[in-house]
Design a protein that fits this description.
The complex is a heterotrimer of chains A (about 280), B (about 290) and C (about 375).
Chain A lengths: L10 H30 L3 H10 L1 H34 L5 H9 L6 H12 L6 H7 L7 H12 L1 H14 L2 H8 L4 H12 L1 H17 L2 H7 L9 H10 L3 H29 L10
Helix pairs in contact in A: 1-14, 2-14, 3-7, 3-8, 3-11, 5-7, 5-12, 7-11, 7-12, 8-11, 9-10, 11-14, 13-14
Chain B lengths: L4 E3 L2 E3 L9 H39 L2 H34 L5 H7 L2 H4 L2 H12 L6 H4 L10 H26 L2 H9 L4 H30 L2 H7 L9 H10 L3 H33 L3
Antiparallel strand pairs in B: 1-2
Helix pairs in contact in B: 1-12, 2-7, 2-9, 5-7, 5-10, 7-9, 7-10, 8-9, 9-12, 11-12
Chain C lengths: L22 E10 L2 E11 L4 E5 L6 H9 L6 E6 L2 E2 L5 H4 L1 E4 L11 H10 L9 H14 L15 H14 L4 E5 L7 H18 L2 E6 L2 H7 L2 E6 L2 E6 L1 H6 L4 H6 L4 E8 L2 E4 L2 E4 L6 E8 L4 E3 L7 E11 L2 E7 L7 E5 L10 E6 L3 E4 L8
Parallel strand pairs in C: 3-8, 3-9, 6-7, 7-8
Antiparallel strand pairs in C: 1-2, 1-4, 4-5, 9-10, 11-12, 11-14, 12-13, 14-20, 15-19, 16-17, 16-19, 17-18
Helix pairs in contact in C: 3-4, 3-5, 4-5
The chains are: A mainly alpha (about 280), B mainly alpha (about 290), C alpha+beta (about 375).
């Protein structure tokens, strides 16, 4: 509202700080992003497009889409269920439950993959049993899906829980007194109230699901054309010194990040009030 | 903790509510949580307990593991401190000043959350290699960044930045301007107001952000391995060593290192919760 | 419009040592972008005076206070502290004690550290020694009746206690004037009344020239030596409680202070015509349409005596210790209120003769009215 020299810094200090901030962000955030596209297009647009003609690349894209198409909806259902139970009811151990939901955020991606190897791997707890049934989880698609679900587990729930807690139960109770069924109340009252936060959570969840590297790397086995997701394919191409193809696939992932950030900023700008009040990642 | 409330003949753990669906949603959430997160993590702990504390200690103190843990720990700590300084400056600039392109800059802060780590890894490696845009500036001075611990530091600064900015930003936004004015009316200079009033009030948020950035950095894998060079004893990080052990089918070794890392993140989590509990007690629920 | 009268009780409150100074505003104006918050204010505050700035929200009273403090920079005009031009001084150089509505205490510092903050912020050569600071903090804690709570943190105090800490903190830097922005605005009614009395005592002991902003009429009229009535960025009137209540200078003051009902009337020079009735104009020569502001105490029953005009009783209510009747003079006019003794036998539908003790009447078209 007002700005007077007593409460704000001199223009020199102000512009120095702005310059430091922009310089730092340009160096650490913007430049790498530019580098991805520059490296991808280094040999011209033809070479860039050729990378996507590769059957292995196409298989990686398909696998990535498949994995997130399984992981995101499952975590969405979980997020809604957990948020409903936590936000609309009082029960002992609630804060413990919230902490446990956040747990995957504080676990290294590599460890997230490792736990499934210990469970389902050849020398894992259930390894021999799975072997008998001739069912592969590790070094196969199910393991990749599981690891992806693990690392993207909290995204949707933690967007919904604080928002639904803030909204309380009054509207749902009103709907029930008006004769709506429980499920109808959920569909017509609760869901519309959280739709933007839900979309926001899905966006972040999807970005991480498609981009996850460490956890998936541990369980995938890196079988070209079969168990390589896009990030893993980037690694393989890079390690084969096929830089143009590596950066071409990477640029597709970077574009996904762009879209995610754009949609996220739009949601925050347009529906900021409808998103959770406590915004912490 | 609320007390169990008896409802009719059925004792129930939750307080009565008119809303339906608790059993279904709670049951599903807990089952799913157990299957995906808790049981697998329990297997890790069980596996580690199989070799015992002594075994874990033995693994941790083998020179290569010790070196990897040290590299992970120190580069993560250094990156978190760098982010503390620059993250606070970025948050400050975004909250307090108006300048062209501010919205774009604000959105860009989240890039490390959205950009797949492998993409960040190869991009940073390309930039900081001796023939890269930035690396070539340092090469003539004999300074190598990529494929040394400095490269690890760069990657960890990249992935940790948003944690500090995004925890400090909302606290700074909510900061009461009257408090700054009060300081000014009491004769404090602008610098005194910043260093004696604003920064102390922000310190719980800064500490939380730093702890979160540190915890993330210790476990980071994708963005680091491309730029690190991965030389044992020099630039090999602990998560990479887990992968190496797994490739050698040394499950126990991998589990032991993972357990140590879990312990580190657990301590970081405790610090975060402690700081938040302290600041809630001291500063009210802001 | 500003009035330059001495303090109404004739006592010069300037304490020994010359702490209290006069504050003068000359043509003070402030606009935010295109919106004018303060339009051009002339005001002289006497040394040692306790002056209330009263007005509806958005009337410019807080902006004026912040201009005096140096928290805002005026777009025009000057501020004098005694004879010194303070307009160009920064907020730190003005040495004002400012108390904020929401306390603005430093939450990471305890009570004693809060109070000592201003002293510790001084450059080393002006900073009192530690022992001196501690002694002064103890004295101030005593003054605000919070001895023994120095180690507490602001969140461990009640609202009233916090505001007392805020006042002690403001007094610690030996300010030349004390400025309070709605100091009791965030407190509940009981605490407000206690603190009000206590603030008056503190003021009388320290003798600072004090300005305080409030939107609570009762608070302003009870606590202050004089009250300045703000409206739309201007001061409508400055005066003692008696002057404001009995001799409002503008229609706005008449309608804003007290509970007045406004009647459209007609001036004939010697009389005021209310509906079909006429009353003596009490020396106010007004010709043409006019507005009459009527408060409950302005009317008395004129039992048979001369000058009474007939009014119909519309309703009778019991309010606290008194009884009030609503009366109309004509069907087209809104009802006015009159205070009656408890035992008075008046009932709804009666016609009673009444007489005006005070006649607050202003020609129509004068700027005013509650906004």
């Amino acid at each position: 509202m007002h700005s007077s020299s007593a409460f704000s810094e001199s223009p020199a200090v102000r512009w120095t700080l702005i310059a430091i901030a922009i310089g730092f962000l340009a160096l650490f955030l913007v430049l790498p992003l530019i580098a991805v596209f520059a490296e991808a297009l280094r040999r011209g647009i033809g070479m860039f497009l050729e990378a996507f003609a590769e059957p292995d690349t196409q298989a990686a894209i398909r696998l990535t889409l498949l994995v997130s198409a399984i992981a995101v909806p499952l975590n969405l259902v979980f997020g809604l269920a957990a948020a409903w139970a936590i936000a609309k009811f009082e029960f002992p151990g609630k804060s413990l439950l919230i902490t446990l939901i956040d747990l995957p955020f504080s676990v290294s991606p590599v460890v997230s993959g490792l736990v499934y190897v210990l469970l389902f791997g050849a020398k894992g707890v259930l390894g021999p049993t799975l072997d008998d049934w001739d069912f592969k989880i590790i070094f196969a698609v199910p393991g990749i899906v599981l690891a992806t679900i693990f690392v993207t587990f909290p995204f949707i729930a933690r967007e919904l829980i604080p928002l639904m807690q803030e909204q309380g139960t009054a509207e749902e109770e009103a709907a029930l007194t008006l004769g709506a069924s429980g499920f109808r109340t959920f569909l017509t009252v609760t869901l519309p109230n959280v739709r933007w936060a839900l979309l926001y959570g899905v966006l972040l969840c999807n970005a991480r699901a498609m981009g996850e590297f460490g956890a998936v790397s541990v369980v995938s086995g890196h079988i070209r054309g079969l168990t390589n997701t896009m990030p893993l394919h980037v690694e393989i191409l890079y390690n084969e010194y096929n830089f143009v193809a590596a950066f071409a696939v990477a640029s597709l992932l970077a574009a996904l990040a762009f879209v995610t950030l754009g949609a996220k900023s739009f949601l925050e700008w347009r529906h900021g009030d409808a998103l959770a009040a406590t915004r912490r990642h | 903790m609320s007390v169990a409330v008896a409802r009719g003949w059925t004792p129930t753990l939750r307080k009565p509510s008119a809303l339906p669906g608790f059993g279904l949603t709670f049951g599903f959430a807990v089952t799913y949580l157990s299957l995906i997160v808790l049981i697998p993590l329990a297997v890790l702990v069980w596996r580690a307990s199989g070799i015992g504390l002594e075994g874990i200690w033995h693994v941790a103190t083998t020179p290569r593991v010790l070196a990897a843990l040290q590299v992970s720990f120190f580069t993560s700590a250094a990156a978190a401190l760098i982010n503390a300084v620059f993250g606070v400056i970025v948050a400050w600039v975004l909250v307090r000043y108006d300048f062209p392109g501010k919205r774009l800059i604000d959105a860009a802060v989240d890039l490390p959350f959205a950009l797949p780590t492998a993409v960040a890894g190869i991009a940073l490696a390309a930039l900081y290699a001796t023939n890269g845009w930035i690396g070539s500036l340092f090469a003539p001075w004999g300074i190598k960044i990529a494929f040394t611990p400095y490269g690890i530091l760069i990657a960890l600064v990249f992935i940790g930045l948003p944690f500090v900015v995004r925890t400090v930003q909302p606290v700074l936004e909510d900061f009461d301007r009257e408090v700054e004015e009060a300081s000014a009316t009491l004769g404090a200079t602008r610098a005194q107001t910043i260093f004696r009033v604003i920064l102390p009030a922000l310190s719980p948020a800064i500490l939380t952000g730093v702890a979160m950035a540190f915890a993330r950095a210790v476990g980071e894998y994708g963005s680091v391995i491309f730029i690190a060079g991965n030389m044992p004893f020099v630039s090999e990080i602990a998560p990479l060593l887990i992968v190496t052990r797994l490739e050698e089918f040394d499950y126990s070794g991998a589990a032991a290192i993972a357990t140590i890392m879990l312990a580190i993140s657990f301590v970081a989590l405790l610090v975060i919760n402690g700081v938040q509990a302290y600041s809630r007690r001291r500063f009210g629920d802001a | 419009m500003a009035m330059h009268s001495p303090p109404p009780d004739g006592i010069d409150r300037r304490p020994p040592g010359g702490v209290a100074i006069a504050i003068t505003a000359e043509g003070l104006a402030k606009s935010f972008g295109t919106a004018s918050a303060v339009v051009g204010i002339d005001l002289k505050v006497h040394p040692g005076e306790l002056l209330a700035l009263l007005g509806p929200s958005g009337s410019g009273k807080t902006t004026f206070l912040r201009l005096v403090a140096g928290l805002e920079t005026p777009t025009a005009g000057r501020i004098l502290f005694d004879n010194e031009d303070a307009t160009r001084l920064t907020v730190g150089e003005r040495r004002v004690g400012f108390v904020f509505q929401h306390y603005a205490l430093f939450r990471h510092l305890n009570v004693a550290e809060n109070i000592a903050y201003g002293l510790r912020a001084r450059p080393r050569r002006l900073r009192p020694p530690d022992a001196e600071i501690r002694r002064r903090v103890a004295d101030l804690l005593d003054l605000v009746q919070l001895s023994g709570l120095g180690k507490r943190y602001p969140t461990q105090l009640s609202g009233g206690q916090r505001q007392r800490v805020a006042l002690a903190r403001a007094l610690a830097v030996e300010p030349r004037v004390l400025l309070l922005d709605e100091p009791f605005g965030a407190l509940d009614a009981k605490v407000r009344r206690d603190l009000r009395r206590w603030l008056r005592e503190v003021h009388d002991r320290t003798g600072h020239t004090t300005l305080f902003v409030t939107h609570d009429q009762e608070e302003a009229l009870e606590l202050a030596d004089r009250v300045a009535i703000f409206n739309r960025g201007r001061i409508e009137q400055v005066g003692s409680a008696d002057e404001i209540l009995d001799r409002p200078a503008t229609p706005f003051v008449a309608s804003f202070v007290g509970e007045a009902v406004c009647l459209s009337v007609e001036g004939t020079g010697d009389t005021i015509r209310i509906g079909s009735h006429e009353v003596p104009s009490q020396g106010q020569k007004i010709v043409g349409p006019a507005e009459l502001y009527v408060r409950p105490r302005d009317l008395v029953l004129a039992d048979g005596a001369a000058g009474g005009i007939a009014a119909r009783v519309v309703a009778v209510r019991r309010t606290g210790p008194a009884r009030r009747a609503e009366l109309t003079f004509a069907d087209a006019l809104p009802p006015v209120e009159i205070e009656l003794p408890l035992g008075h036998p008046v009932a709804k539908g009666n016609v009673v003769p009444v007489r005006f003790t005070t006649l607050r009447v202003f020609p129509s078209g004068q700027d005013g009215g509650v906004t």
